[in-house]
């Protein structure tokens, strides 16, 4: 059978693409899968609309992209499919079934706080409110490549301290003692080389990056502010307004994201899978 090319539509000037006429499942043709992987590497974010898939298909498709991680927040894993982390404001018997409720969730890189951060996340929309709750993405490859020379010299070869605890104290709930032990603050390079494409991206985010290592506090705060202002310029940001059935796959080595709040009177439920990098190319980066 001849290999057909997917029809795509770019989502912004520099990154992101919607792929048309595709149904995600655990049994994709190998040519289609190769094309999806190439587009994922090229665009950083892929949007698949009108999926109407179940948990088996979501997990099955995710597995084709890499080994899956069971998220450290065990309280919000799906009961029958623990590879799925639930993001939701729904309560059952007074207990939240998912993470992040209905408030603002600040800019972050998923898993920047782990020694072997995930390569990707796939978020699938099951139930959404009529307004709000959009997710914004920043293209950190373009943000790095267009960085003014003076700033580039200040980040190349340097490290920053990443804190999951900092993120949770602002946007989520505290981790348990065991979870806290698994997620101590960690130093990571400020510039990350992509494990597959080799392209460089800024690796920092307002929600989790608390300091630049090896320089004094004031200088660090000042430099971080300049870098955050730069990365959040309009030209690097894409806003995604969700429809039910959207699957959004992002590259966690070169994009960060945030969510705007929504009216808690409406229910929102998203399923997320977390895709690990290939074993031989995870760290160092
Ligand atoms: Fe996230």
Q: Can you write the helix and strand succession as a string?
A: EEHEHEEEEEEEHHEHHEEEEHEEEE
Overall CATH architecture: 4-Layer Sandwich
Give the structural class. alpha+beta
Helix content bin: 10-25%
Hetero groups in this structure are:
fe (ii) ion
Strand content: 25-35%
Overall morphology: globular
Distance between the termini: 39 Å
**How many domain regions?**
1
Q: Can you lay out the helices and strands and say which pair or pack?
A:
Layout: E1 8-10, E2 17-19, H1 30-43, E3 45-48, H2 55-65, E4 85-88, E5 91-92, E6 95-96, E7 99-100, E8 105-108, E9 120-127, E10 135-139, H3 140-145, H4 149-155, E11 159-162, H5 164-171, H6 177-182, E12 186-189, E13 191-193, E14 200-202, E15 209-212, H7 217-231, E16 237-240, E17 247-251, E18 255-259, E19 269-275
Parallel strand pairs: 2-3, 4-7
Antiparallel strand pairs: 1-2, 3-17, 4-19, 5-6, 8-18, 9-17, 9-19, 10-16, 10-18, 11-12, 11-15, 13-14
Bound molecules: fe (ii) ion (FE2).
Structural notes for this entry:
This protein is α+β, with helices and mostly antiparallel strands. It has one domain (8-281): Clavaminate synthase-like (Double-stranded beta-helix). The chain is built from seven helices and 19 strands. The chain has helices at 30-43, 55-65, 140-145, 149-155, 164-171, 177-182, 217-231, and strands at 8-10, 17-19, 45-48, 85-88, 91-92, 95-96, 99-100, 105-108, 120-127, 135-139, 159-162, 186-189, 191-193, 200-202, 209-212, 237-240, 247-251, 255-259, 269-275. It has an eight-stranded mixed beta sheet, with helices on one face. Strands 8-18-10-16 form a four-stranded antiparallel beta sheet. A three-stranded antiparallel beta sheet has the order 12-11-15. The longest helix is centred in the last third of the chain and has 15 residues, at 217-231.
């Amino acid at each position: 059978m001849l290999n057909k090319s997917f029809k795509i539509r770019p989502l912004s000037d520099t990154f992101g693409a919607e792929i048309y006429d595709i149904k995600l499942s655990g049994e994709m043709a190998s040519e289609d899968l190769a094309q999806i992987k190439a587009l994922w590497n090229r665009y950083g974010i892929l949007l698949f609309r009108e999926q109407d898939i179940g948990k088996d298909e979501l997990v099955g498709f995710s597995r084709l992209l890499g080994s899956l991680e069971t998220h450290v927040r065990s309280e919000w894993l799906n009961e029958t499919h623990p590879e799925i982390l639930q993001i939701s404001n729904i309560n059952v018997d007074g207990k939240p079934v998912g993470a992040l409720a209905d408030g603002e969730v600040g800019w972050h890189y998923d898993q920047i706080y782990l020694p072997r951060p995930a390569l990707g996340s796939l978020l699938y929309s099951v139930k959404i409110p009529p307004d709000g709750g959009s997710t914004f993405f920043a293209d950190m490859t373009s943000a790095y490549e267009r960085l003014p020379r003076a700033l580039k010299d200040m980040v190349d070869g340097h490290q920053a301290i990443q804190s999951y605890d900092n993120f949770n104290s602002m946007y989520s709930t505290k981790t348990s003692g065991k979870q806290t032990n698994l997620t101590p603050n960690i130093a990571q390079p400020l510039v990350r080389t992509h494990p597959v494409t080799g392209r460089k991206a800024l690796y920092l985010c307002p929600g989790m990056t608390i300091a630049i290592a090896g320089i004094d506090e004031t200088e660090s705060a000042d430099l971080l502010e300049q870098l955050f202002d730069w990365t959040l310029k309009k030209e690097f940001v894409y806003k995604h307004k969700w429809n039910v059935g959207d699957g959004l796959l992002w590259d966690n080595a070169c994009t960060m994201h945030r969510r705007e709040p929504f009216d808690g009177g409406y229910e929102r439920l998203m399923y997320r899978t977390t895709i690990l990098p290939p074993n031989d190319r995870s760290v160092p980066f």
